Structure formats: structure tokens, C-alpha cells
From TrEMBL, chain A:
One of its GO terms (biological process) is transmembrane transport. The keyword Isomerase does not apply. The chain crosses the membrane at residues 30-56, 78-101, 113-137, 163-185, 218-241, 262-288. It is a multi-pass membrane protein. Belongs to the binding-protein-dependent transport system permease family. CysTW subfamily. It is found in: Cell membrane. Keywords: Cell membrane, Membrane, Transmembrane, Transmembrane helix, Transport. The keyword Metal-binding does not apply. This is Putative spermidine/putrescine transport system permease protein. Gene3D superfamilies: MetI-like (1.10.3720.10). PROSITE patterns: ABC_TM1. InterPro entries: MetI-like, MetI-like_sf. GO terms for cellular component: plasma membrane.
UniProtKB/TrEMBL annotation, chain B:
InterPro entries: SBP. It holds the Pfam family SBP_bac_8. This is Putative spermidine/putrescine transport system substrate-binding protein. The keyword Acyltransferase does not apply. It comes from the Bacteria. The keyword Methyltransferase does not apply. Residues 1-27 form the signal peptide. Keywords: Signal. SUPFAM superfamilies: Periplasmic binding protein-like II (SSF53850).
Length: 298, 378
């Protein structure tokens, strides 16, 4: 998540504060990281190592599991489908979440409270409950289908389709996009907009040259959280989708529980992590470059 | 019996615990209660449904099954009474999770003593995850013919994979054979078929092949490509279900016109008012199995529990509580007419059943599941 921090962090970061402190104080403050660090080691690093170990040793030592995965056309289709689904969900969250976060910033205190609540209530509701609600909404004789029929659009299959999965996941993940973006937008100095209009810029120019660039770190943070969460989503695609459009998490489940092939499951986990990290690295480079140009302009 | 097997939260939990933590935790905690205490189960041949009084005082046994009304019924009918008679303290766990079981056996820290699982998995893992049962402790003489499929397990109950059809739609001219299920010209409508990732019960492919003209005695080895080709011919009309609850919901909401479902779910749907009737011709018999994991703390005590579970009284009560069929030929459950019509172990039902080759499935299960999962995903 270093990228996310880098994207969100303002000019004065926690690091710079620590750097200025005396060495002994610095160690004391680092000591505060120990509980979280231990949790990370036990809950994340150790299982990760075990997963790696399985990938290379079960059922026999070597690259057999990787050869299987890379040679299996179905698995590659599923991997591609997983990433396109994640991209689609991220784009939908961006299209819905950006205007929403903007409205939250632009609204008066009362309306803002209402808008914030509307984001937080689904955020606090159990994932299972929301997913089952979508099952009911999307099903063949459900309310959305009857609405479509009433307006004359006929039957558009939603439940057990990738479209249904994308709709459900977008709703589930939307708060993760809106909240970081809102946090960034509230910190934008609104006087800059006034300054730009006093210099002759219309609202559209002000938006594209001032507001949009300054809100990009929030867009980056929200997109990354949504994209990465989408890659590993299990419950929502399993309930809203069908085996015909399964994602990698369902395939991993098959290997772990159905076939007891933990080496293959580990391999799929490794592949997912490696590709995700690679994408993150590329994004960090691209976004890092674009934000540095913004700073240059500033 | 898979009521809770596919509960999604459980699946998520299973991935998290198994893939991440269970081995690590197992390695860090010390093993069970040390060497097994000697057990005196008395002399003479074992009689199903009985146990020597107080033979297991001071012992603790953990029974694991799929939860829901099924496990409640098992515990009320057999497991709790066994604890009372033998003096053993009974613990329960669940739902059965094959990955957790493997983690326990491979780490040598086995906390499950008797496990309810599918008969295919029990046969497949006989000698790997499960130990052979000692027939001097477990009396298998009353088990209906054909249900005892391997040395490591006994059936826990019996049920079937059956075709249900909509009586409003096809009532005047109901389907009578497998070919009708796959004939969407003569019987237009949607079809429900099991199709979760990682799951395939015996019977799904067999049904498709019977419909395609394969004779029952030429069924094995299964030509899975031909079966899937037959299924592909009506794929646009298939609604795949992956949990028992889903299949029942498909019937109760009328979303499919015919469905291949577990008989317990079919019964529940009809009881709840769904207008469907079973087609019994060449139905596919299935069973859960009870087995003892390798490394269980006290195998003799586990097997004594299994022997008690198989008694005719216990089985009758289990059937009354769960609607699954008894696996003791002497059992006389008291049922209403509808529940009785779904009992799969009566002579007339056994006569119509397709002869599934469980041993072949144990050998080829993983290959079939992989082929089916790929076909579904592709």
C-alpha cells in the first residue's frame, strides 16, 4: 500500500516528522509499529510463505504446478476474465464515485451529512446481506427485470451473468472509492478555484485545470483499493455469477476444497499476487510521473 | 447430504483458514490427548445399535457433519443417545470440510473422531485420510445391499439424485426417461442441473449419457466428453445450481421446468407447495458416509459410535427427523405419505435405481470434476 500512502500523503508526511526527531525518540515511535508488525507477520507473511512453499513442493518439488497453470487455456481465460471484471468495476466506481464525492464536497452541511450517511450505511452492512439483496433484485422474475419489461426493454439476463457480477461488486466497493476521494477533495484549497476564475477561467477550465489534477491522488487511491479488492472477490461473484463466468477466487476454492490440490491453489495465489504487484508498479510509475508534473506546475 | 456444505461464508472461511492459517496453527499447538486409553467394548460379535454400558466413561468424541437439520437429526437420533449409553462426552463440529480434514491428518493433529462425508470422498481417501473399519466393532450386516462401497466407511443415510418435473406444465404428458430430460423440443422449458465449481455428484454425467443412448451396462468408464456434448446441446436452457438451497429455491420459485436435484431437497420443495413430481426411472442413488480419520485419538471408540449409529431404531428416528432414508434393513420409520414416497431404500425404489459405480468414481472423481469445472467455466 506504499503507493496509496504516497498518493494520499500531503507535502508534510509522518516520515518527515519522524526524521526530524532525535534518534532515541525515533526508535520509541517505531516501537509503536511492533504490534501491527507482528500481526502482519503472523497473519500475512507466514501464510504467504506457506502458500509459496505449497506452490513449489506439492505434490512434488519443482515447477510442475506452474507448468500446469500456464499450459491450461481455461485457467488463462479465467485469469483474463478476473482482470477485465476488476477493470470494469473500477471504471464504474470512478464514473459513479467521482461526481458523488464532488457533490459531498460541494453540498451544504446538512446535505453532506445525508450523502455521507448514504455511503456509510451500505459500508456498514454485511457483505452477505448486500449480495443476497442483489440476488433478489437481479433474478429472472425480480424487480429489475419487471421494470425493464415495463419500459419495453424486454429481458436482459442479469443474474448468473458477468454483468450482474459487475453491478453487485461495484455497489459493494463504491464506498472504498468515494471515501478516500472525498478525503482528498476536502483538502483542496477552494480559493484556487476563485483565483482561476478571477484570472478569467470559466468553470469548465477551472475544473479541468485546477480541480481535476488536484483530486487525482484521491482517484488513484480509490481506484487501487477497488481494483485490488475486486481481484480477490469471492462471495459476490459466486452468488451473482455462474460457473460459466467464474473468477480466479472460485477456481482457487475448487482446488483447495474440491480437489485438495493445495499446490495448484498456491500457484494460482502466487500468479495473482505477482501480476497484481506488476500492475501496481506500473501504475505507481505512471501516477508518480503525472503527480510530479502537477507539483512542478504548482 | 450437502445442506450446509456449500454455505458461502463457510467456503470463504475455509479458504482463509486452510490456505492461510490452519497448518501454521496446527504446527504450533501440541497434539491431542496423548496415547489412546484402552477401551473394553465387551466380547462377542458387534450388534448394530448397541454399545456396552459405560464402556467409554471419561472419553471425549467429536462428531462432525454438515450442520443444519441433518446434523441435528443425527445427534438427536444416535449421537447423543450413544453418549448417554457409553458414558462418552460428545462434542460436535461442522460443517465437514475436506480441506480441514486433510490439514488435520497431514499435521498429525486430528481432533475429529467420526466424520460424515460423501461416499465418493470416503472411498477415494480410504487408506489416505481414512482408516479401514474393524468389522468386529462395526456390524455391517443390516446395511442395504449395494450401499457398502469401501472398507473405510459405512453409509450415514441414503438419498438420490432425481429428476423433478413441473406438474402444471407436463402433468398431462410427464417425462418418463432420461431422454425426455434432454429433449427440449418435446418438453420445452428450463432445466436445473448441479454445476458448482469443484463439485460434481455421480449421476449427472450418467443421466446425460443414458439420454444419449448409452446403455446402463456400457456406462463405465464414463465418456465425459460425450456427456458434456449432450449437455451442451441444451446448455442455453440449463440453469446451474451449486447448493442444495439454491436447487430447492429454483423449484419453489418455478424458475425451472425440470431439475436434477437431491431427493431431500425435492421433498422439502414439494412439502412447501412446489408443484413438482419425481421421475424415478433410473434415478441416481447417493449416500453420505461415516468414516474415521487416520490419526484419530481413539479409533475403537469412534467405531463403537458408528456401530451404534447404524441401529434400526436410530436409523428410523433419523429418517423421521430428516427425511433421508434409513440404512438399516430392519428400520421402520413412521412417516406421512409424502415423506414415505421419497424414501429411496424401499424395494420398488431400489428396483428403479441406476447402478452407480462408486469405486470407479472414487478413482476418477478428480479428473471428472476438473473436466466438468473447465467445461462450465469455458
Amino acid at each position: 500500500m506504499a503507493t496509496v500512502e504516497a498518493l494520499v500523503a500531503g507535502p508534510i508526511t509522518a516520515d518527515t516528522v519522524i526524521d526530524q526527531a532525535a534518534p532515541s525518540k525515533r526508535w520509541g515511535r517505531l516501537g509503536l509499529l511492533v504490534p501491527a508488525g507482528l500481526l502482519l507477520i503472523i497473519g500475512f507473511i507466514v501464510p504467504l510463505v506457506i502458500m509459496l512453499w505449497y506452490a513449489f513442493t506439492d505434490p512434488s518439488v519443482g515447477f510442475g504446478n506452474f507448468a500446469w497453470y500456464l499450459g491450461d487455456a481455461v485457467q488463462q481465460r479465467i485469469l483474463l476474465r478476473t482482470f477485465t471484471t476488476a477493470v470494469n468495476v473500477t471504471v464504474i466506481c470512478l464514473l459513479l464515485g467521482y461526481p458523488y464525492a464532488y457533490a459531498m464536497v460541494a453540498a451544504g452541511p446538512k446535505l453532506r451529512a445525508v450523502l455521507t450517511l448514504l455511503v456509510l450505511v451500505p459500508f456498514w452492512t454485511s457483505l452477505m446481506v448486500r449480495t443476497f439483496a442483489w440476488v433478489i433484485l437481479l433474478q429472472d422474475h425480480g424487480p429489475i427485470q419487471s421494470l425493464l419489461a415495463t419500459v419495453g426493454l424486454g429481458q436482459i439476463p442479469l443474474i448468473r451473468t458477468n454483468l450482474g457480477v459487475v453491478i453487485g461488486m461495484s455497489q459493494v466497493l463504491l464506498p472504498f472509492f468515494v471515501l478516500p476521494l472525498y478525503a482528498v477533495m476536502t483538502n483542496i484549497d477552494r480559493r484556487l478555484i476563485l483565483a482561476s476564475s478571477s484570472l478569467g477561467a470559466g468553470p469548465i477550465t477551472s475544473f479541468f485545470r485546477i480541480w481535476l489534477p488536484l483530486s487525482l491522488p484521491g482517484v488513484g487511491a480509490g481506484s487501487l483499493i477497488v481494483f485490488i479488492s475486486s481481484l480477490g472477490f469471492y462471495v459476490t461473484p459466486a452468488l451473482l455469477g455462474s460457473p460459466g463466468n467464474s473468477l480466479i477466487s472460485q477456481q482457487i476454492f475448487t482446488q483447495v476444497n474440491g480437489l485438495l490440490q493445495w499446490g495448484r491453489a498456491g500457484t494460482m495465489g502466487v500468479v495473482l499476487i505477482v501480476i497484481t504487484l506488476a500492475i501496481l508498479a506500473i501504475l505507481a510509475l505512471v501516477i508518480g510521473r503525472s503527480t510530479s508534473t502537477i507539483k512542478g506546475v504548482r | 447430504m450437502k445442506i450446509a456444505k456449500s454455505t458461502w461464508s463457510v467456503r470463504v472461511g475455509a479458504i482463509a483458514t486452510v490456505a492461510a492459517g490452519s497448518l501454521f496453527l496446527a504446527a504450533c499447538t501440541t497434539g491431542g490427548g496423548g496415547p489412546a486409553k484402552p477401551v473394553d467394548l465387551g466380547s462377542g460379535a458387534a450388534v448394530s445399535g448397541s454399545v456396552k454400558a459405560n464402556a467409554l466413561t471419561g472419553q471425549t468424541l467429536t462428531f462432525v457433519s454438515y450442520g443444519g437439520i441433518y446434523q441435528d437429526g443425527q445427534v438427536a437420533a444416535a449421537i447423543s443417545p450413544f453418549g448417554a449409553a457409553s458414558g462418552a462426552k460428545i462434542l460436535q463440529d461442522g460443517p465437514t470440510d475436506n480441506a480441514k480434514l486433510k490439514a488435520q491428518v497431514t499435521s498429525g493433529n486430528v481432533t475429529w473422531d467420526v466424520v460424515d462425508t460423501t461416499n465418493v470422498f470416503a472411498a477415494q481417501q480410504c487408506g489416505k485420510l481414512f482408516m479401514p473399519l474393524d468389522t468386529s466393532i462395526v456390524d455391517t450386516s443390516k446395511i442395504p445391499a449395494g450401499l457398502l462401497t469401501d472398507k473405510c466407511s459405512v453409509p450415514a443415510m441414503s438419498y438420490g439424485m432425481i429428476v423433478m418435473y413441473n406438474t402444471k406444465k407436463y402433468g398431462a404428458n410427464p417425462p418418463t426417461r432420461w431422454a425426455d430430460f434432454y429433449d427440449t423440443k418435446k418438453f420445452p422449458g428450463k432445466r436445473g442441473i448441479e454445476g458448482g465449481t469443484g463439485d460434481l455428484d455421480p449421476g449427472v454425467f450418467e443421466g446425460a449419457l443414458l439420454a444419449d443412448g448409452v446403455s446402463a451396462d456400457a456406462m463405465y468408464p464414463i465418456d465425459e466428453k460425450r456427456a458434456m456434448k449432450k449437455m451442451a446441446s441444451i446448455r442455453k436452457d440449463i440453469v446451474f445450481w451449486s447448493t442444495g438451497a439454491q436447487s430447492q429455491q429454483l423449484l419453489e420459485s418455478g424458475q425451472v421446468d425440470m431439475a436434477l436435484v437431491w431427493s431431500g431437497r425435492a421433498y422439502s420443495a414439494v412439502k412447501n407447495g412446489a408443484a413438482y413430481a419425481p421421475m424415478w426411472d433410473q434415478w441416481m442413488p447417493e449416500a453420505d458416509a461415516l468414516a474415521v480419520p487416520i490419526g484419530a485419538k481413539n479409533p475403537k471408540a469412534s467405531m463403537a459410535m458408528i456401530n451404534y449409529y447404524l441401529g434400526s431404531e436410530q436409523q428410523a428416528k433419523l429418517t423421521e427427523l430428516t427425511s433421508y432414508s434409513p440404512v438399516n434393513t430392519d428400520s421402520k420409520p413412521k412417516l406421512d405419505e409424502l415423506a414415505q414416497s421419497f424414501v429411496t431404500t424401499t424395494p420398488e425404489r431400489v428396483k428403479d435405481a441406476f447402478k452407480l459405480d462408486n469405486a470407479w468414481w472414487a478413482e476418477n472423481h478428480d479428473e471428472m470434476v476438473t473436466a466438468y469445472t473447465n467445461w462450465l467455466a469455458g
